[in-house]
């Protein structure tokens, strides 16, 4: 959970301890990205919908340089269109671009 420190200190349902997932190996043949966001996004968009927004953006901009800022802004824009009521942070990591040295 990003932010909301007061909740983590006062409500036992929220953990101050970070969740660390097992290591995932990404082969050169698979396409992979990570979308890290605050609850302002996840309150209005499911993980499946967020992934689809990223894939749609990448497809619409195929052949052009895809910027992490552009993808994050696109996802954030959708959260705003859905009237998120919380502050929202979005970080996009494109492992394909990292593998290719872009």
Question: What is the number of helical segments per DSSP (H or I, 4+ residues)?
Answer: 5
Spans where pLDDT lies below 50 across 5 or more residues: none
Task: Summarize the biggest pleated sheet.
Answer: 2 strands, antiparallel
* Rg value: 15 Å
Silhouette: flat
How far the N terminus sits from the C terminus, by CA atoms, comes to 29 Å
Taken as a percent bin, the fraction of beta residues is 5-15%
Helix and strand sequence: HEHHHEH
Count of beta strands: 2
Report strand order across the widest sheet: 1-2
Mean pLDDT: 83
* Oligomerization: single chain
Percent of residues in helices comes to: 40-55%
Structural class: mainly alpha
Descriptive notes:
By secondary structure, the protein is mainly alpha-helical. It has a domain at 31-100. It contains 5 helices and 2 strands. It has helices at residues 5-10, 39-42, 47-60, 68-81, 95-99, and strands at 33-37, 90-94. It has a two-stranded antiparallel sheet. It starts with a helix and ends with a helix. This is protein-serine/threonine phosphatase. It is an enzyme of class 3 (hydrolase). It catalyses: O-phospho-L-seryl-[protein] + H2O = L-seryl-[protein] + phosphate; O-phospho-L-threonyl-[protein] + H2O = L-threonyl-[protein] + phosphate.
A few lines on this structure:
The longest helix is centred in the middle third of the chain and has 14 residues, at 47-60. Helix 3 (47-60) crosses helix 4.
Spell out the blueprint of helices and strands.
Blueprint: H1 5-10, E1 33-37, H2 39-42, H3 47-60, H4 68-81, E2 90-94, H5 95-99
Antiparallel strand pairs: 1-2
């Amino acid at each position: 959970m990003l932010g909301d420190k007061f909740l983590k200190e006062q409500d036992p349902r929220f953990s101050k301890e970070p969740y660390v997932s097992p290591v995932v190996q990404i082969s050169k043949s698979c396409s992979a990205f990570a979308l890290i966001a605050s609850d302002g996004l996840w309150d209005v968009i499911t993980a499946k919908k967020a992934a689809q927004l990223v894939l749609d953006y990448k497809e619409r901009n195929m052949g052009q340089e895809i910027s992490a800022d552009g993808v994050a802004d696109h996802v954030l824009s959708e959260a705003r269109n859905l009237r998120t009521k919380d502050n929202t942070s979005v970080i996009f990591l494109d492992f394909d671009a990292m593998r290719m040295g872009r």
